[in-house]
Design brief:
Elements lengths: L2 H8 L3 H15 L4 E11 L28 H13 L4 E6 L9 H14 L4 E5 L5 H10 L3 E3 L18 H14 L2 E3 L2 E3 L5 H12 L7 E6 L16 H14 L4 E4 L8 H10 L3 E3 L3 E2 L2 E2 L3 H11 L2 E2 L14 H7 L1
Parallel strand pairs: 1-2, 1-9, 1-12, 2-3, 3-4, 4-5, 6-7, 7-8, 8-9
Antiparallel strand pairs: 10-11
Helix pairs in contact: 1-7, 2-8, 3-4, 5-6, 7-8, 8-9
């Protein structure tokens, strides 16, 4: 979609906008289901990049201790617990610039992916930059989706990160698409950008070919010691407008209400779900940031009449339009 088209949607009167986004959601997602995802930091701290929002950058004094890469056995144990708690998607994140073929750490990650894939869960990883060969290796090991957010608009990006470029992000996404993995790509709002920057970010996402399978929308969690540690909370109506616009522009994507939910009220989260969000990170921690507890999330979903989405079987979309998806889950 064009920026002008996205602006026209975003600027629709609020109630008309969320009514339209609700219809777009119901047209493509027939049930009141929410995908539950668990995110695990498998290698924490000590990252060489200077992302201004990240407590794991070695360039900032944030109190986050550098940790070594978790073993495949330890990662598998966490994945098993996540599955038992209802998660159907297991995401692994590592704080480093990227991965390289032949690196023992990358070989360890590939083994972790194989183990999690055998549990019958969707496997998502976020490992920084990667080339064509590494993307194919991840796909062959069992990764279903690669997360690589573009974070913000191309124009605002240099204000947030200087150690790599916006084009570097797009290059990695291109390698992911070529390998056959799904793309999980969204951004972070509340980093001093304008509402126009958010729509420019969305314009980039809507022109991916193929479209992103999932779009995480993160609200900045200001981390002490980072350059963005004093940014104010995102306005709830701006967040809902962005979710609604994303749902209309990318009706078949999972729109993930991601970081920052601890700063939202239950009512605010309910509005986000109504406007089209249908995926959350589930568990008490997102890499280094706090997240609502499992019991709190279960209580909220029950209150709203929302149920966990069944897992993706690897061949068919896990939505009610695909009868084969239900068959392969039985």
């Amino acid at each position: 979609m064009t920026l002008r088209e996205l602006q026209a949607i975003y600027e629709t009167p609020f109630f008309d906008l969320i009514a339209r986004s609700r219809k777009a959601y119901l047209d493509h997602w027939k049930k009141s289901e929410v995908q539950l995802c668990t995110l695990l930091s498998i290698k924490t701290g000590g990252c060489s990049e200077d992302c201004g929002y990240c407590a794991q950058s070695a360039r900032y004094n944030t109190g986050v201790e550098r940790e070594t890469l978790m073993s495949p056995e330890a990662i598998e144990a966490v994945a098993v617990r996540a599955r038992e708690n209802g998660s159907t998607r297991f995401c692994m994140g590592a704080a480093w610039k990227g991965v390289r073929n032949g690196d023992p750490r990358f070989e360890s990650v590939l083994e972790s992916v194989r183990r999690v894939a055998k549990l019958g869960m969707e496997v998502c990883v976020t490992l920084g930059q990667l080339g064509e060969k590494e993307a194919v290796q991840l796909k062959d090991a069992g990764v279903t989706a690669y997360n690589h957010n573009i974070d913000t608009s191309p124009e605002h990006y240099p204000n947030i990160v200087t150690t790599h470029t916006f084009q570097d992000r797009l290059d990695t996404i291109g390698h992911v698409q070529k390998s056959g993995m799904s793309v999980c790509c969204g951004g972070i709002i509340g980093m001093g950008e304008t509402e126009l920057d958010r729509l420019k970010m969305l314009e980039v996402l809507t022109n991916f070919d193929p479209a992103p399978e999932s779009v995480p929308i993160n609200c900045l969690m200001p981390m002490p010691g980072t350059p963005l540690d004093e940014q104010p909370p995102v306005d709830i109506f701006q967040l809902v407008r962005l979710i609604a616009t994303t749902r209309i522009a990318l009706p078949r994507a999972k729109v993930r209400l991601s970081a920052g939910r601890t700063r939202l009220t239950r009512e605010g989260q309910a509005l986000c779900f109504f406007a089209g969000a249908n995926s959350i990170f589930y568990g008490d921690k997102l890499l280094t940031a706090a997240n609502p507890g499992v019991d709190d999330d279960r209580a909220l979903l029950d209150e709203l009449g929302l149920t966990p989405q069944p897992p993706y079987c690897g061949e068919h979309p896990a939505d009610s339009e695909c009868g084969a998806a239900m068959a392969c889950l039985s």
